[in-house]
């Protein structure tokens, strides 16, 4: 089973329309900044078996979470709910700002997204999925990590 979660009404309308005929995929409207609300959502609770290993995918979402909303705490709440053997996939925008190829890629991604309807906001450069947490304000390249939550 797969459950997509988003709080944007337009995304919800399109998501529900696209997934209407799929008995294994669901969509619910919720705010990822409220892990308890997401995890207790009737669609999530009804579709996901929290007794079997899961994959939590936070793809291109956490850079929209402001520092004051405590993104690391949000991820801790989600990973604490995962059963043993689960995986976390996390992608977020980050720039090394060092003139490297990754920095050039980051500038290109920023240029493209700045003008799109998705927009971009600064965020902390952190990779919680592998236990790293930094405090710099960054926003430019894509960092992806796949890791099993610690202690699992």
Automatic annotation (TrEMBL):
GO biological process terms on file: methylation
Molecular functions (GO terms): methyltransferase activity
EC number: 2.1.1.-
Class of enzymatic activity (EC top level): transferase
Alphabetical UniProt keywords: Methyltransferase, Transferase
Short name of one Pfam family: Methyltransf_19
Domain of life: Bacteria
Protein name: SAM-dependent methyltransferase
